[in-house]
Design goal:
Blueprint: H1 7-29, H2 37-46, H3 52-59, H4 63-75, E1 79-84, E2 87-95, H5 97-121, H6 123-137, H7 145-150
Antiparallel strand pairs: 1-2
Helix pairs in contact: 1-5, 2-3, 2-4, 3-4, 5-6
């Protein structure tokens, strides 16, 4: 059976959207109703500490867009901005304890989604699908995927 080529990216995006929406529904139930997908991507980009420029590069956005995201994370107490101890001219964005707790809750929510999918299609089929996706797309795992989709030059 031959299926149209467009079906692959459409279904991959639909699966991404379904898993993210469900994970954020779970996050809201667990006390993080304000969390948005971009917050999680930005927190991953921050890591243990990053500059606004590094975050912008990782997310594939302008420094101004990164600054807006950082301001949101600071307002939510997910991140703090402090002078870089190694270079006083730089400012580092670091996760707060609340931000790390949100990331832990997010990881648990995504695990719950994965577990639910395993129930729906069976754990062996899910593992096979994940192995196959890893073979096909592992080198493309990047945090700037969402901004690339919004960029009409991509």
């Amino acid at each position: 059976m031959s299926r149209p080529g467009y079906e692959l990216p459409v279904l991959l995006l639909a699966g991404f959207r379904e898993s993210v929406d469900e994970a954020h529904r779970i996050l809201a139930e667990r006390g993080y109703p304000e969390a948005r997908p971009r917050d999680g991507f930005a927190m991953q980009a921050i890591g243990a500490g990053s500059t606004a420029g590094e975050i912008a590069t990782a997310l594939g956005v302008t420094k101004q867009a990164a600054a807006k995201t950082i301001a949101r994370l600071v307002d939510l107490d997910y991140a703090a901005v402090e002078p870089d101890p190694d270079d006083g001219r730089r400012r580092l964005v670091t996760p707060t304890e609340h931000g790390r707790a949100m990331l832990r809750a997010s990881a648990e929510a995504f695990q719950a989604v994965r577990d639910a999918w395993a129930v729906r299609i069976g754990p062996d089929r899910l593992d096979t699908m994940l192995d196959d996706l890893n073979t096909l797309a592992a080198r493309s795992t990047r945090l700037d995927t969402l901004s690339a989709l919004a960029d009409d030059r991509a």
